[in-house]
Structure prediction request, 441 residues.
Amino acid sequence: MTAVAEAVSGGLIGGRLWLYANYHCNLTCAYCLTESAPAVARRQIPVGGLPGIAAEAREAGFTALGVTGGEPFLVAGMAGALAAMAAELPTVVLSNGTLFTPRLLNELTVLAGRDVAVQISLDSADPEANDEMRGPRNFARVVDAIPRLRARGIRVRVATTGDGVEPDALARLCELHRSLGVSDEDHVVRPIVRRGRAIDHGLGVDAGLADLPAELTITADGAFWSPFGPTVHGGRLDTDLLLTRTTRPLSIPAAAMLRIAGAATSRPASGPPRIR
Amino acid sequence: MARVELVTAERAPLLARPFYAGGDPGPIGAALANVPELMEVAMPFLGVVYGPTSVPARLKEIVILAVSSANGCRYCTLSHTAVARRMGFAPDELDALLGQAPPPDRWDAVERALLAFSEALSHRPAEAVDLLRPHFGEPEIVELVTLGSATVMLNRFATALELPA
Prediction:
């Protein structure tokens, strides 16, 4: 058993390895951790390298993969890369759900039946409330995309991000995602973390090392403690949760993560991470 | 103004945080923090090289300041002139270490050898060790060459990055 596998099975770190495919996005969401927008620097991990990282992750002892950004589906060749990654480990890709044109949907047919889930952001069953945070016509595009993906045999998850979602609003949202064929098991609700653009809008909760999931996260700028780590504020990458600039071989950032995680467990218990 | 970010405590990466525990790690540390895995090994290395060892601190300071002067490093020369002054080096000794005067007559053969060694290491490194052999054993020679070479490295580092003195 590898050191990573032992740490994952012992709960010291999470089993999912995250990859920031890119930082640019067609949307400019108010709470975006990475200040993503159409014109920002792309800072892509070369898409051709993603399957190799996935293979290395499996060998190292990670149990799942996550791809995020930016909007990963702005990267040409992402569908094929996801198919290859899923051959190594179960993979989830986070998307804003607004780019699923007939052409992209055709490309995504390679994911049918594979262990890949497309996790789409949807914050409210009320189109106006949803679009206030995520941009015009976002709701309509997402609600249109989910059945189209599912019709192609692709598993869809829904992610809701918000500050204290009201029970009634949550109930309506759950009713909506169920009507779109997404089960409760595939619906995740997470708080806004006060990093990135959320700081400027006064949104979210403060979160430090102990509050965030210990899930190794690889970006073009280095390896981070958590997918909430490689945030951008004022156009500048935050480095407070940076582990190493070296990302490959994965053993280097993984070893750094295990050292930090081990040190953290030697401190007085502060409870499990608040952010999931 | 430095040519790279001098990382503040608030932005210190996880592996770099221990080096901020005692306060500002200084410009060299703050620059190294940009690459935390490098800082994690470089800082302890530099701590051993520049900390207390078998070679007396006064002799080590002769090498540090004379090498820095020979290599034209503004940051290292200014910072170690202050260090040497605090250690009790007299003005005429500082002038010698900065290459502005010959060594004082009161200096012994060991101190003169270290001054010559520092100049040689900076410009004719193949000749440097012979200057130490009459006065030091091999472990001390290795230590002094390491000290002088680490200083050359930091001279280049501080000059290239324009670290503020």
User: Anything to note?
Assistant: The two ends of chain B are 10 Å apart (CA to CA). Helices of chain B lie at 26-32, 36-50, 57-70, 74-87, 91-97, 109-123, 128-132, 138-160. Chain B has two domains: 9-50, 57-160. The CA atoms of residues 2 and 162 of chain B lie 5 Å apart.
